User: Which sequence fits this backbone?
């Protein structure tokens, strides 16, 4: 899953943590990589799940049952809301998928101590020498790839250890890839030194994910990348691409159209795996909002047209935003009507 | 025979055409070399089974030579030294400083050169998708050279066919990619151009396909023959219909 960060990184960080938190609750292994925040702190800061016990047990069992039926060799970079049930779930699984989280509380330590997690904090890894051929890739990326490959191999996520009966999934989260902290200058310069590092990294990562039982979320400060060609290539190399546009600091903040929301969700691409078709749905206009406890993504609906002046500007804006929202993707869109985390 | 077909997609995913051609040529009894750069073998296998062809069986009887780009790249980067004493990896341009795709071309040529005792009808090269090579560090010139060598070898010498998928966008800022795509368009015998609808997303019509047949390469000859249809993709099939005549409308 490839997430384009919003300008101030607030909301994409939230999505990132949700992905990891879901992993903790489902009992998956985690791999957290970051160049700016120590993974230990990220883990401590995951939102607490809203559970009631019976609900959790039921889901926990189903989740493990579903995961152990299989995937001979490969898993995918998957958008967990949609596609995991589609590809894996047996027809008897309940329609509820995933868990709800309370963003005002952090996860209790017992929860994440019950799972196995690995971290990659770039400043700490710089001292070690990479063993793999770097093939002209940025050395930070090379180290990260090596680390991921090592974990996949050692922990048997690629099926290399047939003795291991309990198959589990590795959830990988990589924060702010492509930013200057990773040593890549695509965010700071129009003609970067090596425009292929990021795309090569993604290609190798894709290979690793395809041959193991893992899923990965990556957040990228896309608004900082000057060279748009890179973003196009990155989109082609990813399974799912979601952009978050927050209204902070933009003129949309005061636009009455968007007063209920904090930002828009742009789904640029959804996976088309193992099938000719992909899961296309009705709506493409999604917006998100952060309430005190919950982060929700909803179908964007407009406030009713009440007065003359309001309707004039909003109609124009509406036409413009409708153009922005529904052009581009062609046949791609996702979105259940109301996705709650 | 000897045709170069370009599959081009804009604002949508044209990979259903790749699946079609793969099963089409396999069913026709041709020897196929499939350079699959973007997806894993099992993905193609599962879709091909829905279309009635088994890729594993085809591989076993030697009809299909499958280059799984993702796997090959991993072997190249993480493989042990001893394993590489044999053939050089077809994707070795990723780790070498030379950016030519000669190793890849050699791989294609050896796979499609008829071996003694082969009874397959014409060879076919299928590539999904060419734009990935640019992302991996190949220069546009290297990519075009590779295609040129393949055409000489597969189309002219072996009288086979080539089908290549590329992505493109009208307002794309990826100049290298646009350069490759435009150049290939000029050299193709047949272009299948798949686009998302200009009016945006629609549930019943997934897009439109433009079929452009190159009639003649002479300057003053007739225009290329263009046909436009719309399509809807289903689980095992794709239905095509004239514009505006989708089943949902009629």
Assistant:
């Amino acid at each position: 899953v490839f997430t384009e960060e919003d300008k101030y990184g607030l909301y994409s960080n939230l999505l990132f943590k949700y992905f990891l938190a879901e992993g903790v609750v489902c009992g998956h292994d985690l791999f957290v990589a970051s160049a700016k925040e120590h993974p230990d702190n990220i883990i401590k800061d995951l939102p607490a799940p809203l559970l009631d016990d019976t609900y959790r047990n039921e889901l926990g069992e189903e989740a493990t049952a579903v995961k152990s039926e299989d995937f001979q060799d490969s898993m995918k970079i998957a958008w967990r809301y949609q596609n995991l049930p589609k590809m894996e779930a047996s027809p008897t699984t309940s329609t509820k998928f995933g868990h709800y989280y309370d963003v005002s509380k952090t996860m209790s330590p017992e929860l994440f101590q019950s799972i196995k997690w690995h971290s990659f904090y770039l400043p700490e890894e710089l001292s070690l020498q990479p063993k793999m051929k770097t093939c002209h890739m940025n050395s930070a990326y090379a180290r990260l790839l090596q680390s991921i490959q090592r974990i996949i191999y050692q922990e048997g996520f690629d099926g290399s250890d047939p003795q291991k009966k309990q198959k589990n999934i590795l959830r990988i989260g990589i924060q702010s890839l492509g930013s200057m902290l990773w040593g890549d200058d695509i965010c700071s310069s129009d003609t970067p030194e090596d425009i292929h590092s990021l795309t090569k990294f993604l290609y190798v990562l894709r290979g690793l994910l395809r041959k193991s039982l893992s899923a990965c979320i990556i957040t990228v400060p896309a608004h900082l990348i000057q060279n748009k060609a890179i973003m196009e290539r990155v989109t082609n190399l990813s399974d799912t691409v979601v952009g978050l546009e927050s209204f902070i600091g933009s003129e949309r903040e005061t636009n009455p159209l968007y007063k209920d929301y904090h930002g828009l969700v742009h789904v640029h691409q959804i996976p088309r795996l193992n099938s000719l078709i992909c899961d296309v749905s009705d709506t493409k206009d999604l917006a998100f909002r952060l309430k005190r406890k919950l982060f929700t993504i909803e179908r964007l609906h407009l406030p009713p047209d009440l007065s003359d002046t309001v309707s004039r500007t909003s109609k124009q804006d509406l036409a413009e935003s409708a153009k922005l929202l529904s052009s581009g993707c062609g046949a791609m869109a996702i979105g259940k009507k109301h996705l709650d985390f | 025979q000897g045709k170069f077909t370009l599959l081009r997609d804009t604002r949508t995913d044209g990979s259903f055409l790749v699946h079609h051609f793969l099963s089409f040529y396999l069913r026709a009894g041709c020897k196929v070399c499939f350079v699959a750069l973007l997806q894993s073998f099992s993905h193609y296998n599962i879709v091909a089974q829905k279309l009635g062809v088994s890729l594993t069986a085809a591989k076993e009887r030697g009809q299909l030579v499958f280059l799984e780009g993702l796997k090959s790249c991993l072997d190249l980067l993480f493989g042990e030294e001893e394993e590489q004493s044999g053939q050089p990896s077809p994707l070795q341009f990723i780790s070498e400083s030379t950016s030519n795709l000669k190793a890849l071309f050699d791989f294609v040529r050896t796979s499609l050169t008829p071996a003694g005792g082969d009874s397959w009808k014409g060879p076919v090269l299928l590539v999904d998708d060419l734009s990935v090579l640019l992302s991996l560090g190949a220069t546009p010139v290297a990519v075009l050279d590779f295609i040129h060598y393949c055409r000489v070898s597969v189309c002219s010498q072996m009288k086979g066919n080539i089908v290549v998928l590329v992505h493109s966008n009208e307002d794309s800022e990826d100049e290298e990619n646009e350069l490759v795509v435009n150049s290939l368009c000029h050299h193709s015998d047949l272009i299948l151009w798949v686009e998302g609808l200009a009016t945006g997303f629609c549930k019943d019509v997934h897009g439109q396909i433009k079929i452009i047949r190159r009639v003649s390469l002479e300057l003053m000859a007739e225009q290329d023959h263009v046909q436009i249809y719309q399509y809807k993709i289903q689980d095992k099939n794709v239905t095509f219909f004239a514009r505006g005549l989708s089943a949902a409308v009629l």
Q: What stands out?
A: The CA atoms of residues 104 and 292 of chain A lie 7 Å apart.
